[in-house]
Design goal:
- InterPro entries: MULE_transposase_dom (IPR018289), Transposase_mutator (IPR001207), Znf_PMZ (IPR006564), Znf_SWIM (IPR007527).
- The structure is a single chain.
- The protein is of the alpha+beta class.
- It has 5 domains: about 1-95, no CATH class; about 115-245 and about 320-365 and about 445-460, 2-Layer Sandwich (Nucleotidyltransferase, domain 5); about 245-310, no CATH class; about 365-440, no CATH class; about 510-525 and about 540-575, no CATH class.
- Helix content is about 40%, strand content about 15%.
- The chain contains 17 helices and 13 strands.
- The strands form 3 sheets. Strands 3-4-7-6-5-8-9 form a 7-stranded mixed β-sheet, with helices on both faces. Strands 10-11-12-13 form a 4-stranded antiparallel β-sheet. A two-stranded antiparallel sheet has the order 1-2.
Length: about 575
C-alpha cells in the first residue's frame, strides 16, 4: 500500500552533527489529514505541558485536550489528558516535599538580601525520632515595615484566606492604608488553621515588628475571623477593633431581606453621631420592628461610625483593602509553598516600584482618591448658611439642620471631619467664609509627602535557588495530609446578599417571582401553599388558572427578555466603568 504513494522521505542519523539528516524527500502528499500521531502518548503530553499545568493547577482534562488541539492541531482523548494530568501531579508530589527541605535556605536568603526583615518558621515534632514537621511561616520585609511606620496611619486590616493546592492551610495577612487610601501589605503568614492560637502567634510577631508601645492607639478591622477577637484583645489590649459592616449585614439580612432594609442598615452603619444613629434606628423600627431588635444585638461600637475613635483619621466600616489583597493572591494560593511566597514577594516589590512612579503624576499635594472625596464635599457644601462668632466658632445652617465648626480644632459636630481628616461639607462652608482653601485643612496623613515616605524604601531582589545559602539545620518534613470530607472547594462561599458574577449562558434567579401551581398565587409554591385541597378543583390542581396564565406568562417573558438584554449589556461593558 505504501509503495504506491507518491510521497516519500528518507533520513539517517549523522553522528558528527548529532542530528537526523534528510537524504531523500519526494513531495506529492495526497492522503487525508490525520490528527493523531503514535508519538503523542501520555508521557509526551505530560512532558510538554508540565510547566503550564504547574502554573495553572486548576486545569482539567478537557481544558488540556483543547489546548493541545489549538497548539498542535492534534486530537487526544480526554482519558489520555486525564492520565497526563495525574502523571504531572505524581511528579510534582516529590517536588512538593522538596519545598520544605529548602524552606530554611529560602528564609536565610531573604534575611541576607533584604535587611531588617523577619522570617520565622515554626515546626512541630510529631514523632520523637523523626525530623520536625512544618507548621507555620511568617514574613515581614524590612523596607515594607519601615515604609508603613513612617508613612501610614495606625489602622490595620487583618484577614485570612484558604489555600487551594496541595499545600493546605490559610494565609493570614495584615494590610495598612497609604496616603491615598489604597492597600499597603505589611506582613503575611502561612498557617495550618485559622484559630486563636495561629492569630495570636501572627499578631505577636507583628507587634514586635511594628515596635508597638501604646496598643490603645491602634485600630484593627476584620471580617469576624475565628479566634481573632480574643487574639487582638490579648496582644493589643485596649485597641479599637472594628468589624466589617458588610459581613454584619450579610448575617443580619438572612432574616431581614429587601432593598429598603438594606438601605436603612447602611444608614445606621454610616451614622457619624449618636443622634443620627437613633433617628435611623427609629426609621428602621418603623419599617420592621424585628429587624431593629435583631440589629441591636450586634454591638454598635464594632461597626457604626458614631462610636469609632477619631485618632486614626479613617472612617471606613468595611475591610475592603484586605479583601483586595486576597484577590491578588488568587494565583498564588494554588502554588507550592516557596513559589507562593515568591509570588507575594515579587508582587509587593513590583507594587512599590509602580507606586513610586505613580506619585510623580499627582497634580496637587494630595492623591486622586482624596481629592475626589474633597470635591464631593465641596459640591455638598452649596446652599448652607454660615454665621461667624468673630473668633473661631461657625454655625452652619440649612433648614432644620445646624452644626458647629471649629477650624482651629479641625472639628465639626457632625464628626465626619473628625473621623476622616477630610473637611466635611459644613467645614468647607466655614473655610470658604474665612477666605481659605479647603485643601489646606486636609489632614497631613493624606499628603504627597507621607505617600512618598511610604514608598521610599524599595524591596531588594533576591538570588535564585542555586545561590541560596545552605543552612545546617535539620530538614523539615511536609505537614501531614488532611483529607477533608466532600469535594475540595476552589471558590469561597458567598453571602446571601452578595451579588453573583454575571453569566453569559444562564439568567440569574434573583428577582424572579415564584408562582404557585396550586392556587395561582405569587410569592410561594404549592408546597407552602395555605389553600386546602378541598377548595381547589381537580382540573385546576397542578397547573396555573387558564385565565391568567397567558397574561402572566407574557409579562414574565417580557421581564425576562429585559433582564437578558440587561445581562448582555453588562457582559459587553461592566456597569461600574
Amino acid at each position: 500500500m505504501w509503495e504506491n504513494l507518491p510521497f516519500s522521505l528518507t533520513a539517517s542519523w549523522v553522528e558528527r552533527l548529532k542530528c537526523f539528516q534528510v537524504k531523500v524527500f519526494k513531495e506529492g502528499h495526497s492522503c487525508n489529514l490525520r490528527y493523531r500521531l503514535r508519538i503523542v502518548c501520555t508521557k509526551w503530553v505530560a512532558d510538554m505541558y508540565e510547566e503550564k499545568v504547574v502554573e495553572n493547577p486548576s486545569m482539567g482534562a478537557v481544558e488540556l485536550k483543547n489546548l493541545i488541539k489549538a497548539e498542535y492541531k492534534l486530537n487526544v482523548s480526554e482519558s489520555m489528558a486525564s492520565r497526563a494530568l495525574k502523571a504531572i501531579e505524581e511528579k510534582n508530589q516529590t517536588a512538593f516535599k522538596d519545598q520544605f527541605k529548602k524552606i530554611r535556605n529560602y528564609a536565610e536568603e531573604c534575611l541576607q538580601s533584604i535587611p531588617n526583615s523577619t522570617v520565622v518558621i515554626k515546626t512541630v515534632r510529631v514523632v520523637p525520632e523523626q525530623p520536625s514537621v512544618f507548621q507555620r511561616i511568617y514574613v515581614c520585609f524590612g523596607p515594607v515595615k519601615k515604609g508603613f511606620i513612617e508613612g501610614c496611619r495606625k489602622i490595620i486590616g487583618v484577614d485570612g484566606c484558604f489555600l487551594k493546592g496541595q499545600m493546605k492551610g490559610e494565609i493570614l495577612s495584615a494590610v495598612g492604608r497609604d496616603a491615598n487610601n489604597q492597600m499597603y501589605p505589611i506582613a503575611w503568614a502561612v498557617v495550618e488553621i485559622e484559630n486563636t492560637s495561629s492569630w495570636t502567634w501572627f499578631l505577636e510577631l507583628l507587634h514586635n515588628d511594628l515596635d508597638v508601645t501604646a496598643p490603645d492607639e491602634w485600630t484593627f478591622i476584620s471580617d469576624q475571623q475565628k479566634g481573632l477577637a480574643n487574639a487582638i484583645t490579648r496582644v493589643f489590649p485596649n485597641s479599637e477593633h472594628r468589624n466589617c459592616a458588610r459581613h454584619i449585614h450579610g448575617n443580619w439580612s438572612k432574616a431581614h431581606r429587601g432593598m429598603n432594609l438594606k438601605k436603612l442598615f447602611w444608614q445606621c452603619a454610616k451614622s457619624t453621631c449618636e443622634p443620627q444613629l437613633e433617628a435611623n434606628l427609629a426609621e428602621l423600627d418603623k419599617a420592621d420592628a424585628q429587624a431593629g431588635i435583631d440589629l441591636r444585638k450586634h454591638p454598635f461600637k464594632l461597626w457604626c461610625k458614631a462610636f469609632f475613635k477619631d485618632a486614626v483619621k479613617c472612617d471606613t466600616v468595611e475591610n475592603n483593602l484586605s479583601e483586595d489583597f486576597n484577590s491578588t493572591l488568587l494565583k498564588a494560593r494554588s502554588k507550592p509553598l516557596i513559589p507562593m511566597l515568591e509570588y507575594i514577594r515579587v508582587a509587593t516589590m513590583k507594587r512599590i516600584a509602580k507606586k513610586r512612579k505613580y506619585v510623580l503624576k499627582w497634580p496637587g499635594s494630595f492623591g486622586p482618591i482624596i481629592m475626589k472625596k474633597l470635591n464631593t464635599n465641596i459640591l455638598a457644601s452649596q446652599g448652607w448658611n454660615v454665621d461667624f462668632n468673630g473668633d473661631d466658632g461657625y454655625e452652619i445652617k440649612k433648614g432644620r439642620g445646624q452644626f458647629k465648626v471649629s477650624l482651629k480644632k479641625r472639628s465639626c459636630s457632625c464628626r465626619r471631619w473628625d473621623l476622616s481628616g477630610i473637611p466635611c461639607a459644613h467645614a468647607i462652608c466655614a473655610i470658604y467664609d474665612k477666605g481659605e482653601e479647603a485643601e489646606a485643612y486636609v489632614d497631613h496623613c493624606y499628603s504627597k509627602e507621607m505617600y512618598q515616605k511610604t514608598y521610599s524604601y524599595t524591596l531588594h531582589p533576591i538570588n535564585g535557588e542555586l545561590l541560596w545559602p545552605r543552612t545546617q539545620h535539620e530538614e523539615i518534613l511536609p505537614p501531614l495530609p488532611k483529607k477533608m470530607s466532600g469535594r475540595p472547594k476552589k471558590k469561597r462561599v458567598r453571602e446571601q446578599s452578595e451579588a453573583r458574577p454575571p453569566s453569559s449562558s444562564q439568567l440569574s434567579r434573583k428577582g424572579r417571582i415564584m408562582t404557585c401551581s396550586l392556587c395561582g398565587g405569587e410569592g410561594h409554591n404549592k408546597k407552602s401553599c395555605s389553600t386546602t385541597a378541598g377548595t381547589v378543583t381537580p382540573s385546576a390542581r397542578g397547573r396555573r388558572p387558564r385565565g391568567g396564565r397567558g397574561k402572566r406568562g407574557a409579562i414574565q417573558a417580557e421581564g425576562n427578555q429585559g433582564l437578558v438584554c440587561m445581562s448582555m449589556k453588562l457582559l459587553v461593558k461592566p456597569f461600574w466603568k
